C-alpha cells in the first residue's frame, strides 16, 4: 500500500515482530551507535509485544480479556498508555475505532477464553493509574489497529535517547514514522494510480480491504459485514498510533463522514482515499 524510495546511505536494521517486519532506517554516521540504538529498539519492541499482544498467553491483553465481572487488573505502564491512546482515538472518531470489538473480526469469532465474541460488555481504564476493570464481561481487546503505530512512537523516543534524530521507522508496508528535518519520498500505491508523497516529521498509515478483506468491524452493526465506501485510506498525523487508528476508522466512513472528519482535523491530519469504484487516490 506504500512504497519507499530507499537511500543506500542509511544504516538499515530489521526484525520480525507483531506479525510483520519492523525496519529502522537510521541516518547516523556512527555505526556502533546505530547498532546499539537498533538493538535497544528491538529489545523494547519485544517487551511491548509481550505486554499488548493478544497472542501471548501471559500478556496484559490476554489477562484483561479473561477478567470476570467486577474484577480489576493492574497492567504495565506500556499497556496502560496504549489503551489510553486507543480510547482517545475512539473519542476522536466518534466511536468508529473500537479496540474492544476485536474478537468479532477473529477467524473463528471466539475470544481468547473460547467464549463467543460479543459487542456487549464494558471495560473501564483508570486514567490516572494502570488499572483496568471489567464492569460487564463480553468485550475482547485487540490492539492490532493501533499497536504497531504505538510501538513506532515508543521506538522513536529510544532513538532520540541515542542522539539519532533523523530516521524512518516502518512496521510492514502500512505504518511509517519519519523523524528529523528531512523529507522522505513515499509512493501511495493504488490499484492502478500511484500518488507521490513526502513524509516529514510525521507518521503515515494505510488501511484497506485488498489484502484482509472486510476485517474492520463497524460498531453500529458489529455482527454484519460492513459496506465500504473506500478500498484504501492513507492518513498522515503527528504520531503513528493516531495515524494507525485514524486510517482504520476512516475505512468505515461514508463520503460525507470522511469529509467532515478531514475538515475537523485539517490542521492535524492529511487524508487520501481511493473510492471503492475508482482506481485513483484523491486527497480528502
In short:
By secondary structure, the protein is of the alpha+beta class.
Total number of beta strands: 14
The CATH H-level homologous superfamily: ApbE-like domains
Overall shape: globular
Question: Regions with pLDDT < 50 over 5+ consecutive residues?
Answer: 107-117
Kindly provide the name of the CATH class. Alpha Beta
Mean pLDDT: 88
Q: Biggest sheet, in brief?
A: 8 strands, antiparallel
Distance between the termini: 17 Å
- Summarize the amount of helix as a percent range: 25-40%
User: How many helical elements?
Assistant: 6
Secondary-structure element pattern, one letter each: EEEHHEHEEHEEEEEEHHEE
Based on CA atoms alone, the radius of gyration comes out at: 19 Å
**Order of strands across the biggest sheet?**
2-3-7-8-11-12-13-14
Q: What percent of residues are in strands? A: 25-35%
CATH topology: T-fold
Q: Kindly give the count of domains.
A: 1
Q: Helices and strands: which structural class?
A: alpha+beta
What is the second-level CATH architecture? Answer: Roll
Amino acid at each position: 500500500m506504500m512504497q519507499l524510495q530507499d537511500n543506500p546511505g542509511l544504516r538499515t536494521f530489521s526484525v520480525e515482530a507483531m506479525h510483520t517486519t519492523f525496519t529502522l532506517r537510521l541516518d547516523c554516521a556512527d555505526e556502533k551507535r546505530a547498532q546499539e540504538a537498533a538493538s535497544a529498539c528491538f529489545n523494547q519492541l519485544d517487551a511491548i509485544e509481550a505486554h499488548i499482544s493478544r497472542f501471548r498467553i501471559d500478556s496484559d491483553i490476554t489477562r484483561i480479556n479473561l477478567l470476570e465481572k467486577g474484577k480489576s487488573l493492574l497492567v504495565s505502564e506500556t499497556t496502560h498508555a496504549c489503551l489510553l491512546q486507543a480510547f482517545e482515538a475512539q473519542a476522536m472518531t466518534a466511536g468508529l475505532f473500537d479496540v474492544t470489538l476485536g474478537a468479532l473480526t477473529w477467524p473463528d469469532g471466539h475470544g481468547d477464553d473460547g467464549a463467543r465474541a460479543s459487542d456487549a460488555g464494558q471495560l473501564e481504564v483508570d486514567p490516572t493509574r494502570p488499572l483496568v476493570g471489567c464492569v460487564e464481561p463480553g468485550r475482547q481487546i485487540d490492539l492490532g489497529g493501533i499497536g504497531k503505530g504505538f510501538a513506532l512512537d515508543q521506538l522513536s523516543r529510544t532513538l532520540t535517547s541515542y542522539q539519532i534524530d533523523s530516521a524512518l521507522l516502518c512496521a510492514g508496508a502500512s505504518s511509517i514514522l519519519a523523524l528529523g528535518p528531512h523529507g522522505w519520498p513515499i509512493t501511495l500505491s493504488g490499484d492502478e494510480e500511484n500518488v507521490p508523497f513526502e513524509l516529514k516529521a510525521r507518521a503515515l498509515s494505510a488501511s484497506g480491504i485488498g489484502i484482509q478483506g472486510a476485517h474492520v468491524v463497524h460498531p453500529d452493526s458489529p455482527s454484519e459485514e460492513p459496506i465500504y465506501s473506500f478500498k484504501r485510506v492513507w492518513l498522515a498525523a503527528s504520531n503513528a498510533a493516531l495515524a494507525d487508528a485514524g486510517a482504520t476508522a476512516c475505512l468505515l466512513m461514508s463520503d460525507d463522514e470522511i469529509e467532515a472528519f478531514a475538515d475537523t482535523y485539517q490542521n492535524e491530519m492529511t487524508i487520501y482515499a481511493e473510492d471503492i469504484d475508482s482506481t485513483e487516490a484523491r486527497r480528502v
